[in-house]
Amino acid sequence: MTSKNNHSVWFDAQALSIAVFVDSLELANKIVLRAADRLDKQMDDKGLFPYEMERTTSLHYSAFIMNAFTIIAQLSEKTKTNFWTLETKNGKSFKKGFDALYPYLTKEKVWTGKQIKEFNYADGYAILLVGASKLKCKTCIDFIQKNEGDKYKPSMLGLL
Prior knowledge:
- By secondary structure, the chain is mainly α.
- The protein has helices at 6-21, 25-42, 50-53, 58-76, 94-105, 125-134, 140-148, 152-159.
- The protein has a single domain, classed as Glycosyltransferase (Alpha/alpha barrel).
């Protein structure tokens, strides 16, 4: 809970799931606000996450933390705080993180951070799917279809 990287965000995602499951919406809202504070502190002005950038597989961990924030955003729909549209006091937001990662998740730009092994682009599919549905990304699904080829339909079933 107290770490300064993806571990604390995943803690919030799990705690929030439990709070929503047991119908403790007051607690759930507090967790969403705590996650917003983490977003504000952990994201840089470009929309990336410096602690994840220090990792030897930095694109993987950058997508990994955004996957945790995706879960928080989805569950925030049950609370008073909409994480999809929330902007922190320092201008950080889910959309800012999405916009920063998008060109790397779709191979439009080459990742220049540390990456000692090849990135599995399927690790970004959940982020791209919510980009399509919540952020109106018109090319997100196209990338997944192109990248998956004949495996597209079975891959999508696995994400449901």
